[in-house]
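Action item from last week, closing it out:
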Amino acid sequence: MDEERISHLQELQSNIQCRFNNPAILNQSLTHKSYANEAKDRNLLIEDNERMEFLGDAILCYVMTDFIMEKFPEYTEGMLSKLRAHLVSENILASIAIKSNVGNYLLLGKGEESSGGRSKKSILADCMEALFAGIYLDQGLESVRNFIIQNFLPYIEEATQRNFIPDFKTILQEYAQGKLNCTPIYRVTNQNGLDHEKIFEVRLTIDQTTYGTGEGRSKKEAEQKAAYHALKKINIDGLDF
């Protein structure tokens, strides 16, 4: 790499607040296949970031899955899947890239450059995944986990604040009071495990009829799952969890 490229990479590391031990790894994560293909025409062998993108996608899904499972113990598998799909989407990945001006540091072929490749969401999103892989290869899993959580936390908070994931207990209560003229009742029917590892079992009844059961590491989690199963039993239109 020439001095100008090294200087550009130093700027990017300041922008993303992450210092690489090996700048060559960072450089590869920013190398689009169009640049590598044009280099071949000049008999130069340059590796693009596609394999790193593949690895980064897997790392992102693992880190995000682990984090939201821990942060939202009351969420069902369907709720977690929908939240994760939203968070790892192209739009959010591209948004994170734009905030740090990552597009300015991409290595693109002339054709991709002239067609506005630096601002294409697909390219920016792929580059962020390659960057995750680069941090992992350069510094290990804990560093890339911290980097991912730091950048995604505002989007996680936004998703929960705007009720991206619904409160099933509230939905059920509104339905039961409006349609059935009753209030759901939740009763803990069993507790298993040590104090710090308890599993709660909850039964949900409406007008003395059992509508759902649930279990979880907290009463809140168990109640949410019981309400979820009740809503599925009632088969309310639009419930896609």
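Closing note: Residues 117 and 123 are 7 Å apart (CA to CA).
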